[in-house]
Amino acid sequence: MAQLHTVNKSPFERNAFVSCLEHAKEGSGILLFEDGVYAAMNGTAVADKVKAALSGRSLYVLGPDVKARGLSEDNVIDGVKVVDYEGFVDLVTEYDKVQSWL
Amino acid sequence: MAEPWEDDEVEGPVFKFLYVNRKAPYGTIYALESLEVVLIAAAFEQDVSLAFVDDGVYQIKKGQDTAGIGMKNFSPTYRALEGYDVEKLYVEKEALEERGLTTDDLIVPVEVVSRAEMADLMDEQDVILSF
Amino acid sequence: MPIEVNGKMLETDEEGYLADLNQWEPEAATVMAAAEDQELTDAHWEVINFLREYYEEYQIAPAVRVLTKAIGKKLGKDKGNSKYLYELFPYGPAKQACKYAGLPKPTGCV
User: Fold this and answer.
1) What is the CATH number of domain B16-130?
2) Which residue of A96, A101, B117, C95 could cross-link B113, Cys pair, CB 3.0 to 4.6 Å?
3) What distance in Å separates the CA atoms of residue B43 and residue C36, rounded to the nearest whole number?
4) Which B-chain residues 50-109 have CB contacts (< 8 A) with chain C?
5) Residue C109: active-site member
6) Domain ranges of chain C
7) Which of A16, A19, A3 is nearest to B94 (CA)?
8) Which residues of A touch B120 (CB under 8 A)?
9) Partners of A4 in the β-ladder
């Protein structure tokens, strides 16, 4: 019953990302897209939470949304996988169900 | 042709549906939308649960009075859910505590669960609808 | 189209539901029923009054399944079934009775 969680809000504007981390069980995946990608970058106030979540969970970030915001994929936290739209679709089918954190 | 008063007994698989409510009631439309979807979908007789997490707990705060803001107070409608056979309402303990609330502040009877139990509950579902 | 009730014009939507449920008075139900060749008996009023109380308490018009069950609880088993309610309100108890009661159309009712 592995779940894919998706977050599309900035972690600095809303608590969707933090709440998602607190509810995502081991074995689940977390995909960051749209403004959610800000959480995937090195050096932010939530970076430590992201690193902690990486043990036991898989984190993904949507590359086109990273680039669109002037961020560099090179600056994505180690262990967070960058995916494209096709990868996004693959994830949705790989996991049993999706929960979106609005 | 069935007469209109004859119930169409639709036999089918029953899925576990969880509606996750994370937003306060009047600032955005999410809470009301969620409630309407729950009421409509109740006709499908699935295994429905509602979860109140984060600011979602404010949806069922007692004593709402919207007369001054020109919006409908839909909080009494949560009490109608029982009549729709939607009886499993879960509230996250941490969400209540962070907001200085207890179950005495809520308009409906709920089951209080820890964040970890809430995560388990989410994991057990077939379908999760987030609002 | 507005309807005339006791000399006052009450606004309705295109399906005949009152635009403002606070304008409702019993005579409004009688006027709406007459327009559909429906006479309102005590049995009808029992349901109409029940619906108004339900709305007052829960702020929604009940789905027909919920109405049936609640009527059965309040008014007795012999009335808490769809057949009884459809005989009173042939266009559908939730739809027709809610309209007469001045309530909005039940959520999920198409």
Assistant:
1) 3.40.1260.10
2) B117
3) 29
4) 72-74, 76-77, 79-80, 83-84
5) yes
6) 3-100
7) A19
8) 25
9) A29, A98
**For residues A46 and B79, what is the distance between their CA atoms, to the nearest angstrom?**
39
The sign of the torsion formed by the CA atoms of C74, C76, C82, C84 equals: negative
Q: Smallest Cα–Cα separation from B38: which of C71, C108, C58, C55?
A: C108
In this complex, whether A and B touch, counting 3 or more CB pairs under 8 angstroms, is yes
Q: What DSSP letter does each residue of B15-74 carry, written as one string?
A: -EEEEEE-S-TTTSSHHHHHHHHHHHHGGG--EEEEEE-GGGGGGGBTT---GGGTS---
Residues in B closer than 8 angstroms to C85, CB to CB, are: 5
Question: Rounded to two decimals, what is the model's pTM?
Answer: 0.89
Q: Compute the nearest-CA separation of C70 from chain B (Å).
A: 8
Reduced to 3 states (helix: H, G, I; strand: E, B; else coil), residue A99 is strand
Chain B residue with minimum CA distance to A99: B128
Of C57, C62, C83, the CB nearest to B5: C83
Assess: ipTM above 0.95.
no
Contact: B22, A99; criterion CB under 8 Å: no
State the CATH class of domain C3-100: mainly alpha
**Interchain contact A1–B (C-beta under 8 A):** yes
Task: Output the tens digit of pLDDT for each of chain A's 102 residues.
Answer: 699 999 999 999 999 999 999 999 999 999 999 999 999 999 999 999 999 999 999 999 999 999 999 999 999 999 999 999 999 999 999 999 999 999
Kindly report, residue by residue over C22-73, the tens digit of the pLDDT. Answer: 999 999 999 999 999 999 999 999 999 999 999 999 999 999 889 999 999 9
**Residue B41 to chain A, least CA–CA distance (Å):** 18
Instruction: Map out the domains of chain A with their CATH numbers.
Output: 3-101 (3.40.1260.10)
Q: Scanning every residue of chain B, which has its alpha carbon at the shortest distance from the alpha carbon of C108?
A: B40
| Whole-number Å distance between alpha carbons of B14 and A68 | 42
Which residue positions in chain B have pLDDT lower than 70? 1-10
